[in-house]
Every structure is written in C-alpha cells, then in structure tokens.
Amino acid sequence: MDAQSRGRADEIDPADQWVLNPQTGNYELRLDQSSAQSSAAPSTGGRSKPPSDRGGRSASRTPGPRTAEGRRSGGGRKTATPGREVPPQRSRRSVDASGGAEAAAGRRKRKQQKSGKKKALMWTGGVLAFAVVAGGAGVYLVYSKLDGNLNTIDVKGAGSGGFKKDQAVNILVIGTDKRTGAGNQSYGDRNSPGHADTTILFHVSKDRTNATALSIPRDLITDIPACETKTADGTKTIPGTNRTRFNESLGQSERDPGCTMRTVKELTGIEVDHFMMADFNAVKTLSTAVGGVEVCLGKDIDDKKSKLKLPAGKHVLQGEDALAFVRTRHSVGHGGDLSRIEIQQQFLGSMIRKMKSGDTLTSPTKMWDLANAATKALTVDTGIGSIKKLQDLGMELAKVNPKNITFATIPVLDNTDGATVVLDESKARPLFAMIQSDTSLTEVEQKEKEAKQKQQELLKGPRAAAGDVRVKVFNGSGTQGAAGTTLDWLQNQKRVLKSSNEGNAPQKLPKTTLEYAPNQADQARTLADLMGLPATALKQGTTDAQGLEAMTLTLGADFKGAGVPVSGPAKTPDGVQKVEADKQVCAK
To answer: What is the pTM of this model?
Structure first.
C-alpha cells in the first residue's frame, strides 16, 4: 500500500509520513504501518510531525491535488534509508493530560522546530532567489518525481559553462507570455510563440552575502545578436536584429532563451551562467503552494485589463488573483511597463519572505507542494537540468539574507515614439559596472567610505588642468580597440588633448595601472578623477620626469569601457529605482 492510500485508510494525513530522524537530522518517509498507528507511550527520541502542520489540517487543506500527486508518485517512494533506525512516529491522538507531559511536549516542539528549519532550508535550496526558482532543490526521496517535472533546453554555449562555488553567480530568470497552461488562454499574446515578457538578471555575490535582482524592461530598444539554436531540423543560426525591443530576444524568429542570454551579455557586459524560464502558471501555482503572498496597495485598484479589483490595504493573494496582481500596470504608477516591474518586485520580495518564514520551512507538506509546483513551472538550461544540480545551486543561493537582496531596474529614458524606452547610459553603465565588480547595492556605504579614505590619502594635493595632462595609453585589456575608444573619450569629452594611443601593451594585465613620476602627481590625480581609477591603480616612480615626458596608462582586464570607473562605483548612481527584498512597499 502506498503512502497516500495508507494515509486515507488510517485517517492520517500523508504529510505525517515524513518523520524527523534525530540521529541524522533528516526528515525521512515512514511507511511502517504498525509504527505509525502506534499510540504507545513515547520512546526515547520519538518525535511527531512539526507543529506547523498540525491542528486544523482536515478543515483547511484541499486534498484533491495532493491526492492526485500522491497516486502518481506514491509507487516510487521508498521506506526509510536502509541501515538507519527511525524512531516510531507518535500518534497525534496519544495525549497525556498531565502537566508534566504537556511541558515535555512543549520542550519537544521547540527542539524539533530548530532541526526542521535547518533541514527545510536544505530542501528548498534557499528559495533559489525568488518565486520561479523556489523549492527547486527538492525533497530527498522523490528526486525521480521532481526530475520528471523539469523541462530543459540546450542553449548552445550561451552561458558561462556553469556556475562555480567560489565565484559570483548570474542567473537569468525569464517570464514568457506564451499562453501555455490551463486557464491561460486569455492572457498574453494570442497565437504567439511568446516573448521575454519579464526578465530579471539575478546576481549573487562571490561571498554569498548579497544579491541584486536587476529587471530589464521588455520595451527597451537594444541590439539582439545572432545566436545558435537547436530546432527540430537541427542546429540553426538566427540572424541578429538591431534597434528592436528587448522582449523579441525570445520566441520571435525561433529564438530560444540562449538568445536572450546573449542579448543580456551584449547589453550589460555581464556573462550569464544559467537561465530559468516560467510561464503564467508559475505565479499561480507557487503562490498557492505557500498559502498566499501578502501584498500592499496604497490605493483602490480596479484594472480592467488584468481584472484586478481590490481596495487599498494589505491582501494575501494566490492563484489567479496573484497573477492579476503581477500583470497590473494601467492602474498603478505611470500606467506603463516600468510601473508593472515595480509591483512585480514587491510581489517577489514578499514571496521570498514567505518562503523563508518558519511557517513554510518547518512544514514538510508545504515544502513538497512548493518543490513540486516549482519544478513543474520551470524550464532550465541543461547545465542545471536535474534536481541534484538545482540543489547544488540552491544551496549557494540559500546563504543570502533577504535584507541583502536588492531589486533594481535598468535606468532608461523615454524614446521619441512614446511606446519604447532607451538606455540611460549615464546611470546604466555605472550600475552594470557595480554588478561586474561584484559591488553590493545594499552594503555600499562602508565600501564608499573606505574607498574615499584611500583616495583622499593618496590623492591629496593639487590637480592639473585637463589640458596639461600628458598620458600615453596602452591596451593590455584583451579587448580590441580599448585604447582607441579611451583616447577618443579623453580628447573629445574630457579635453585631455596631450594624450596618445600607443596600441597594445607588451603583455596583458589583470588590472589597469597609471605610472607617473613624482613631479607628475598633479596630472595623475586629475586623470584618476576623470577615469575613476582606484588608489591601487596609481604607481608612482622614484625619479622626476624630464621635459615633455608623459605618464603611462595601461588598460587591464578590469577595463569596462571609456568613462566607466575601473573599480566599479562604490555608490549606486542617483535615480536608480531599487528596493530591498525584506521591505514591504505599497503599490500606488
């Protein structure tokens, strides 16, 4: 008899078959009927189901969907791990009326919650950042079930080849408006293969202390590079398109998510490790799996397009209502896609908080529902196309505290057509540089202070006029034409006219350097100010320069572009829209 059938026969919820083994700290599936039915006095180490999944279950649960899942997956479930002794599960009906027993139960409850939360964090893989990637790290004894849920696409080398545990991680999360899934025929673009309707570049720092979720407006005008895709007829190269909407990087002209990954790299200069893609069902199923997501409205909303109608205040939304919320744009903000991005970020931040809460983490039933819903909703690249690989990734992302996850949007300007937007270069490039240099958007104040102190110590003193700066520019970056573009920028935008392009450096350098003589310190300070060179880039010699001798600027692999600070700015550019995942913001 499988776990689901046994649960129905004995009036025990199937979730109660997951038993905490105190010897291993793991929840394990218990199918021993005699043990589960026992109402004997407690034995040493015996523990009941986590309290968060107790009282009121029969009244509050909807057994239908989980019963169906139980029938499909029950046959594949195994008994507890061989060789491990699992204490018998205590019946929920076995209650000692004495105060001593009640106190003991209280002590067991506190200890069990601690162990359950620790293991549950491992199950979810730390939410994999937010909604569409939550729960993907799975439940131990049902790998085959969850593996079967995943869809995978080979993106033909569009990514980095795989994330590394000692490096920063960049995941591209794509929401498509393709009308797949039950009940979604009235949404999205009819008869279309879909677009990159919602796109978020999720960057997790090398030390796993912080993360940035950077939203890319779908109506951003950009260049889509040529890309290789795998079709039913074999490998095919899709021609690139210049000056078109970003959302056309997916679906249109047979483009796959690998094309979107390449477009993001060309746009931002940030290499993407993996992608995860979901359709409308992801929001509906995941919000339902966690029991609803709390949102806040600063005013009454009645959006005819999304069909969202709610009064001002806080609401807990799931299913169709949750989807209506994240699709709303005409009734909030300026009524456009940028306003929709802001409420999507609010929703995702709230979902992260819900998934990280004890109510979810200590509930095996919710954990299973979440893992099952997430894997069904996901399409991923083959590099992370298994539950084991998702778990490895999730365990890395689990280390980030929600207060250090920042949602931001690429800075844009309205285009002349009134319907699209273009990159705000002055704000976007420094923001990209921050991500490239692994600078946190949530913990920049200390870095900014330290950077200023270093600069002040080294760069104290007078500055030369830009027209008096003499510098030779060498290219040791490995980027073709870097010296030429830098020279053009220095002469035409900064009026450093006594500068020259010396071509390639004798060898490539990992870091940009500026070599100068003691009597050129005023020139070095000016050039460092103009180029955003860190103090470590300045190398002062021991002898004075003679006559018209110029300084030597050698561009290194850290060079991101003319005018982009080499070290990455220590402060988020003014005007960049951002909000931390641990803060609730009311949509207006």
So the answer is: 0.59
